[in-house]
């Protein structure tokens, strides 16, 4: 384990073993931030948990959420927002029974669920609201977070949480008022990009490129362009202009994108997703 990370970090638990929980855990394992024995996870279907998580080396799986609360120091709530009311009362009862509840940290990644709502439902524990995305599994994620701190004894855990998020990509602490907008942009954004990659590859196939090669070229092109933006610090419009030679092929392609209102459509997608996160609040 790299000295950059905290080798004394204790157990991290996940209530809900779906895609986002898996992305976070697999990223932490791949990066060497945690060992498999430091992770525990619960969900309603034990067979599915074992099938998916055991290949990661995570064998501490259960259908009992109470075990996660009791064992873990940092507890991620990764269930869908509409499921949370069904489990919250039991979670609070277990928290009240824990002698060290003031030294635990609950991290909600539920879209639209505010710190105020979480604080009322779980009044005796420190809380963090976070919005990560699935690229964390390849250590290229984007996460924002904010907190409701009640007990100073969890400050070290909060620093460990920030360390974990930072190890898996970009991570920023923001005002809670920005959370839903970031959900619409970065939380939902990978789906928009996957659609673009698929469309880019389909365009290549239409022009005679074999499907597997077209898909790899499309994904590599998107990754390369994104890395160029991040590494050079140049505005995307400047980089676009550098590719568009007068009368060349690229500017003709860009014109077609403008005719299809690509930019307006993407902006609408972010707006719609943000509005939905607001509704969930």
Produce the secondary structure layout.
Layout (H helix, E strand, L loop, with lengths): L11 E4 L3 H13 L7 E4 L3 H8 L7 E2 L2 H7 L2 E4 L6 H14 L7 E4 L6 H7 L4 E6 L9 E8 L6 H13 L1 E5 L5 H9 L1 H18 L4 H22 L3 H8 L5 H11 L2 H19 L1
Parallel strand pairs: 1-2, 1-4, 2-3, 4-5, 5-6, 7-8
Antiparallel strand pairs: 6-7
Question: Shape from CA axes?
Answer: elongated
Total strands: 8
Number of continuous helical runs: 12
Main sheet strand line-up? 3-2-1-4-5-6-7-8
User: What is the rounded distance between the termini?
Assistant: 39 Å
What's the gyration radius in Å?
21 Å
Beta-sheet strand percentage? 5-15%
The largest sheet, given as strand count, sense and whether it forms a barrel, is: 8 strands, mixed
Structural class: alpha/beta
Q: Whole-number average pLDDT?
A: 91
Helical content stands at: 40-55%
Low-confidence stretches: 1-8
- The H-and-E topology, N to C, reads as EHEHEHEHEHEEHEHHHHHH
Q: How would you explain this protein's 3D organization?
A:
- With 281 residues, this protein is an alpha/beta fold.
- Helix content is 53%, strand content 13%.
- It is built from 12 helices and 8 strands.
- Strands 3-2-1-4-5-6-7-8 form an 8-stranded mixed sheet, with helices on both faces.
- β7, α6 and β8 form a beta-alpha-beta unit.
- α7 (179-187) packs across α12 and α8 crosses α9 (211-232).
- The model is unreliable at 1-8 (pLDDT under 50).
In short:
The protein is α/β, with parallel strands linked by helices and 281 residues long. The protein is built from twelve helices and eight strands.
